[in-house]
Amino acid sequence: MNKAYLEHVAIWVKDIHWHIRFFEDVLGMTMREVDGTVDEPRQYWTLGGLQFIHKPDYEGPEGRLAHLGVMCEDLEAALAAALRYDVTEMPQGRNWICLPDGLAVELIQAQPASCVAQALSINPRAEA
pTM of the full predicted structure? Predict the structure, then answer.
């Protein structure tokens, strides 16, 4: 069986700077990557799995989910399995699929593939 883990969650936010400050100050989630500049980010990824997409005119509730980013041991096997379901390929590429209820999923090949097993072996609820 192919294994995978959620690598990041992307959400649209009206005030990206507020979200950056909050998650860094409160949870220590510092910058992993930025699209644009730090002063004027279009998108901002944290160490800890969050991606903020700046959308000041967004009409939905604050913090609306944009897509799930899922790391796969075997991207090709995951794509083949996904096609057996009622999914559609999205314009972003063949590794982006839309589920029947509208949820977007980005499937990402893990490098190395063994890191998926390592990530899944972590018990986040284990006592220290």
Answer: 0.80
pLDDT exceeds cutoff 70 at 128? no
Kindly report the length of the chain.
128
Question: How many domains, the chain?
Answer: 1
Which tens digits make up the pLDDT trace of 60-111? 776 788 899 999 999 999 999 999 998 999 999 999 999 987 889 999 999 9
- For the domain that residue 82 is a member of, what is the CATH number? 3.10.180.10
- 128 belongs to a structural domain: no
**Cβ neighbours for 21, distance < 8 A, ≥ 6 positions apart:** none
